[in-house]
Amino acid sequence: MRDVRHARRNRAEYFQIVIVATALAALAGSPAAAQLSADSDEPLDITSDRLETENNIATWIGEVRVVQGESILTSERLIITQTDDGGIEEIRAVGDVRYSNGKEAIRGDVAIYTETSRTIRMRGDVVITQGEQVLTGDDLTYWIDTGKTHFAARDGQRVRGVFKTQSLDNQS
């Protein structure tokens, strides 16, 4: 029974990491990033049409929704792969992946958290929106430990950023 509780607690902790780290990938360098914490006191609420577990893999399938406070992560499928000792090896959100926290939003086709490299990678028509600022590309990688971000476009395409600026007349 203790091992089951430990595994559940590990899953909840890593879902928090996924939510926060995905947000940090979008917010790197923004003031909102400082407000996010993996130690949130808010409960973690995960729903889907069904949950399948086999060996070290838990798969949430169908309209997956992960909510913690104002943060929401949705996808068609969420796959959690655990190590033999109950730790998290990888978390993969697949299909129309969306994250929002009321101020920022990220969307893409696939998001992958990898524990060994401590990275989050989002691929497939990635759009990051913060207010009126918008970044688009195809492949976003965020290194959790260093804060480094790499955003690339498909072959023949370019990463694009649209930033609203204040005119000099409005700054006084």
Sequence-ordered SSE layout with sheet pairings:
Elements: H1 2-27, E1 44-47, E2 50-54, E3 57-68, E4 71-82, E5 88-100, E6 104-114, E7 119-130, E8 133-143, E9 149-152, E10 160-162
Antiparallel strand pairs: 1-3, 2-3, 3-4, 4-5, 5-6, 6-7, 7-8, 8-9, 8-10
Q: What does it look like?
A:
This protein is α+β, with helices and mostly antiparallel strands and 172 residues long. It has one domain: Lipopolysaccharide (LPS) transport protein A like domain (lipopolysaccharide transport protein A fold). Helices cover 15% and strands 51% of the residues. The protein is built from one helix and ten strands. It has one helix at residues 2-27, and strands at 44-47, 50-54, 57-68, 71-82, 88-100, 104-114, 119-130, 133-143, 149-152, 160-162. Strands 1, 2, 3, 4, 5, 6, 7, 8, 9 and 10 form a ten-stranded antiparallel β-sheet that branches. A hairpin with a 4-residue loop joins β6 (104-114) and β7. The protein is globular, with a radius of gyration of 17 Å. Mean pLDDT is 77; it is low at 2-39.
User: Which structural class should the secondary elements be placed in?
Assistant: alpha+beta
Which CATH architecture is right? Sandwich
CATH topology: lipopolysaccharide transport protein A fold
User: What top-tier CATH class fits best?
Assistant: Mainly Beta
Gross geometry: globular
CATH superfamily heading: Lipopolysaccharide (LPS) transport protein A like domain
Uncertain runs are 2-39
